[in-house]
Amino acid sequence: MATTDTVYNTTTTTAQEPKSRRWLIVPSENLEKIRFVIKVIEVLLSFVAFVMEEVVSNCLQCGPLYFFEFVSCTAFLFTLLLLILLATTLHQRVGIDSWPTLDFGYTVAMAFLFLIASVVFATDNGKTSLEQGAVAFGFLATVAFFVDLIYFWKIRGFPCRKGNNQPTDQTPRPEAEKLNSNGTD
């Protein structure tokens, strides 16, 4: 009886110890340390570009300013959201299975949108130091997004290609076997 208690107590006491939960899981299967740092830089550069653009008090042609505002604000908020999701366990609760594809597609879209917005705002602004600073941070954010893309592609390849996805399940199913047998069994 004493040996059973010893075995029972050792197995139950270790199970009762609280697990240490980390809220930040970098590196993970979705985000390496280097890409985590790049995404933090994207968030910061987008935020600075957005704040500098918001401080501009008047504009002659406001269309480029508003487009740059939209892109920089969107880049800041959605990159921050993506960073939080990928760097924590929250991505497991969202129900999205293809995080690499989503991350790659989003980064491509933001890189080109930031490039277009920065070029348009650079060509048509009031030439104030705030506007030129916002444009400079817009181009820096663009570079950060493109660096993220290149690094992602170098490490993981193109995520939308069939060869890069998880292997398909080739296990034959009973229904398929019945259909293939043509009732000759």
UniProtKB/TrEMBL annotation:
It is found in: Membrane. The chain crosses the membrane at residues 36-53, 65-90, 102-122, 134-153. Residues 164-185 are annotated as: Disordered. It comes from Culter alburnus. Residues 30-157 form the MARVEL domain. It is a multi-pass membrane protein. Keywords: Membrane, Transmembrane, Transmembrane helix. Coiled coil: none annotated. InterPro entries: Marvel, MARVEL-CKLF_proteins. GO terms for cellular component: membrane. PANTHER family: CKLF-LIKE MARVEL TRANSMEMBRANE DOMAIN-CONTAINING PROTEIN 6, MARVEL-CONTAINING POTENTIAL LIPID RAFT-ASSOCIATED PROTEIN. This is MARVEL domain-containing protein. The keyword Membrane applies.
